[in-house]
Amino acid sequence: MKQRQIMLAVALCATVVATFLAPAPAEDLAAVRPAIKAAAAAPAIDHGAAISPTRSRDANNRGSGLVLLDIVRRVPDEEDAGVFSQVSWVPPTAKKSEDVKAEPSAPQAPPLPFKVIGQYAENGVEGVFLQLNDQYLVVRPGDTINATYKVSGYKNGVLDIVYLPLDQHQTLVVSTTE
User: Fold this and answer.
1) Is 169 inside a domain boundary?
2) Which residues contact 128 (CB under 8 A, 6 or more apart)?
3) In 3-state terms, what secondary structure has residue 123?
4) What pTM was computed for the model?
5) In the prediction, which pLDDT does 13 show?
6) 8 A C-beta contact, residue 116 and residue 103
7) What percentage of the chain exceeds 70 in pLDDT?
8) Which of 91, 126, 150 is the last residue of a domain?
9) In terms of domains, do 120 and 75 share one?
């Protein structure tokens, strides 16, 4: 334990000696004081602003490459959640075509929920076997299915079905060869 205390004392002494023997800083404190006074005289900082760098346009600083900072107002989000809200520092731009919502189109009938199982023809009457979820149906022209669909016709292997709520015709291919 005694050896540790001696090592710490030697390190402390070396630090104090190095502090006194260190060279003076390169910049003069007199040059720093005016900059501090100028910063104190500057207007208050707007925390809702962004700072973007721009090149100096002053005639005296053309070749110096001096970078000036422009203050740009930040764009708050639509849903401002306070301190932890997402902040966009990008200036607003024109809205993209995806952002602009298109006018709603006319309502459309949903896709047909039927699966074709088969077809038959008996005594000149043609019919089609369909599956709707777990139900098996035999339909002919003029039949109504669940008060939602009506079979309006069957010709050349194509079943014409009307979606009754919107009165829209849809076709269901039963067979490719007839």
Assistant:
1) yes
2) 116, 118, 119, 120, 138, 139, 140, 154, 159, 174
3) coil
4) 0.42
5) 93
6) no
7) 54
8) 91
9) no
Cα dihedral 41, 64, 58, 73 sign: negative
Whether residue 87 sits in one domain with residue 118: no
Of 162, 117, 120, 160, the C-alpha closest to 136 is 117
What would the two tokens of residue 79 be?
């849903």
pLDDT, one tens digit per residue, over 91-145 is 766 666 555 566 778 889 999 999 999 888 888 888 899 998 889 999 998 999 9
Q: Return the residue matching tokens 């004081």.
A: 33
- Full domain range(s) for residue 65: 46-91
pLDDT for residue 131: 92
Count of structural domains, the chain: 2
Q: What is the pLDDT of residue 19?
A: 86
Q: At residue 77, what is the residue type? A: D
Using alpha carbons, select from 13, 25, 73, 29 the residue that is nearest to residue 48: 73
- For residue 75, the 8-state DSSP code is B
pLDDT, tens digit (0-9, with 9 covering 90-100), for 75-86: 555 555 555 666
Model pLDDT, residue 22:
81
- Are 148 and 161 in contact by the 8 Å Cβ rule? The answer is no
Residue 20 in domain: no
Three-state secondary structure call for residue 157 = coil
Residue 72 lies in a domain: yes
φ, ψ for residue 45 (rounded to 5)?
-80, 130
